[in-house]
Amino acid sequence: MVDQHQMKTLLRRIIHIDMDAFYASVEQRDQPHLKGLPVVVGGNRNRGVVAAASYEARKFGIRSAMPMVTAHRKCPNLVVVKPRIDVYRAVSSQIRAIFEYYTPDIQPLALDEAYLDVTHYWRQWGSATEIAQQIRACIYNETGLTASAGISYNKFLAKLASDHHKPNGIYVIPPSQGVAFVEKLLIEQFHGIGRVTAQKMRDLGIYTGLDLRQQTQAFLVHHFGKAGLYFYEIARAEDHRPVEANRLRKSLGTEATFDQDLISWERTLQTIEPIANKLWVAYENSSFLARTVTLKVKYIDFQIMTRSRSFEHTIQERTILNETIIDLLKTLFPYRKPVRLLGVTLSKLEGNRNQNDESLDLFSFGTIKNTN
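Given the sequence above, the corresponding structure tokens read:
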């Protein structure tokens, strides 16, 4: 029997909009000679990673986050374009304005995708599907870019639906079809189940959504901890998470991959300075104040190490950021192996920047947390 809470969930209308190969599509739009070619947006050939791949490039097995050297090996004729983040942000703002015409309940996930809750607004347009169709048409008319849309009664299914007819497609999963849709999926197709977790599930004999649904909640919690509760629900096509409109940003960070691996302390100091500069400028221009600094180090073999320091009071002085970064670097130096990437993130963000926060003391309140 469906309880009142479940009924409210089933009556929701959630749209997931996902731009098709967003960064690469913007570059092909602005540089027509790139249309039809295998294009990736990313860093240099030897050290960078793929930020986005056109559908022509994806035919060669190229995906986001792939090392650029691997992408070139898969496609020797690959066309590499440097990212233009300011342009992508401007286009994203255009798209956001289109969303706001239909609903104020918008949860951006990135520059190129968002959830829209149209539960209280769909009637004036006829249906949630009609809204999604109009949004896709408006996006194309105003930007020249295509978007895919998924419509369902929860976020999990809406996101799955937007992938179902990509690119430039639309798909609806109504309440009557949610469970049947999920049970046919392979485990690796589930959003929220990564490569390692998928392998662990296969080792347990779980290969499909149906296999997952046949497991007890106790079994899943035993093997996957708190995530087991989430897996238990999505196997039944249930997801009660709301669309979180106007969500506060949780972190602010920047990183850089180097042409040559870092080994020496002197070169480390030279390379970390522009990273810190870029982060501080973004931080000053934001409306947030942070309490935690996290250092990210990626070694030549792609192993990642992080070190973080948290403070009782928010960080309002550049010297505190600089000194904290240096202190965290010292905990990892001398490096156990050459370093290919450094990054710094500010988190535990809160507003607003106009509030005074007294007695900032680097040494009185700092504690280092190690994460391997």
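The mean pLDDT is 86. Try to locate this feature in the token string yourself.
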